[in-house]
Amino acid sequence: MENNNAGLASGPPAGNIFANRIVLAIMSSNFLLQLGIWIRNFAILLYVTEITNNDPVYVSLISVVEFAPIFIFSFIGGTFADRWKPKLTMVWCDFLSAVSIGLVLMALILGSWQAIFLATLVSAILSQFSMPSAMKLLKQHVPGEQLQSVMAMFQSLMAIFMVIGPVIGTLVYQKYGIYISIAVMGVMFLLSALVLLGLPRDIEKEKTEEQSDFKKELADGFRYVMSKKVLKSMGSVFAFCGLAVGLISPLAIFVTMEKLEMPKEFLQWLLMANGAGMLLGGGIVMAFSKKISPQKLLALGIFASMIFTVGVGWSTSVVLTIVLQVLNGMFFPCIHIGINTIILRYTDEAFIGRVNGVLNPLFMGTMVIGMSVSGLVKAPLTLSGVYSISGVLFLLGALLVVPLFKFKETDTYSQSALAGKE
Q1: pLDDT on residue 145
Q2: Which of 89, 91, 123, 286 is deepest in the core (most CB within 10 A)?
Q3: Left, alpha or beta for 261 (phi > 0: left; psi -120 to 50: alpha)?
Q4: pLDDT value of residue 121
Q5: Which 3-state string (H, E, C) describes the chain?
């Protein structure tokens, strides 16, 4: 059992990540999925705005069906992914996504346009089972010293698609329409499943009585977070930032049409500007991140988001809005790196998965709440008003990080006995 694993993980020399077939297969699968997802996102967004005459409630519903499953299923998916075989889980998830997209396409052709939301909903649910399985495979087959480089590759791929994804999605929809766009998405999921079939067979786990109780795992995770002042504060930060992001996420298309008076397709350039900023900012933050504590890095990123969010909400200049989008993207890595570093530093190894399982749904849950109400409050509060409220929520999130400045790295590994105290 160890032989197979060792051959795959340590076969290639350290640093030669692309010689590892597991990394190649998972990166190729991720590339295909990102392509399908971006085509889906833009096709559905442009189609729904057309068919509903720019109804903000329906537009915000797109974001709700995309992110609600992440909130509901992230902890459940992660727990089951630990128990199931990772290769099999990933292949089945992509295959079932492709099948569901085929059924949605049939419903669309028969005239039920609301079925389009199911294409997003089903694949979003299944991704909560396949993503942790991919992480599990990488943990099994990639040497420890290469893991950070592999994670950086995944981040870079996401940032690249932030730049090219909107253009590809818009072009496919404009040239071929909604049916072909949805069909392409299904084909991408199917191709991803075929690529993953090339992975080596799953390592057989011996049956142990480690069939831990799901409820106990969940309770332990919550108790652990509540016992750590840093993590408890992070929960509040996640909640405020999730609500702030949720309020404005579905409204970007209205910034394009109402504030900038541009056609809805212009949204792709705003997202591209944000993605370009992320690529640029990622390199800058990586260079300076060791010289600044993760708490300060996080506070800086959230405070910058507050300024640029309010700016985007009030700007009527195309050039200024694009500049603000680039700057917002540049500071996003501060938030991402700050959050991940704080969680890793201040969490005992045995609880890292469960801490993520508690904090991520907190962020996603408040984000989904924000998305659910953003379409409803847009008219009474105005677009600028909603963006201003989002900015205030970001400011509160940044202020909640400030008390954490006093925590030193020596506070990091406190005894896990704390988890059982409360």
Answers
A1: 59
A2: 123
A3: left
A4: 83
A5: CHHHHHHHHHCCCCCCHHHCHHHHHHHHHHHHHHHHHHHHHHHHHHHHHHHCCCCHHHHHHHHHHHHHHHHHHHHHHHHHHHHCCHHHHHHHHHHHHHHHHHHHHHHHHCCCHHHHHHHHHHHHHHHHHHHHHHHHHHHHHCCHHHHHHHHHHHHHHHHHHHHHHHHHHHHHHHHHHHHHHHHHHHHHHHHHHHHHCCCCCCCCCCCCCCCCCHHHHHHHHHHHHHHCHHHHHHHHHHHHHHHHHHHHHHHHHHHHHHHCCCCHHHHHHHHHHHHHHHHHHHHHHHHHHHHCCHHHHHHHHHHHHHHHHHHHHHCCCHHHHHHHHHHHHHHHHHHHHHHHHHHHHCCCHHHHHHHHHHHHHHHHHHHHHHHHHHHHHHHHHCHHHHHHHHHHHHHHHHHHHHHHHHCCHHHCCCCCCHHHHC
Using the predicted structure, report yes or no on whether residue 388 has a pLDDT greater than 90.
yes
| Residue 5, pLDDT score | 41
**Domains of the chain from N-terminus onward:** 17-203 (1.20.1250.20), 213-405 (1.20.1250.20)
- Which of 2, 34, 6, 35 has its CA nearest to residue 20? 6
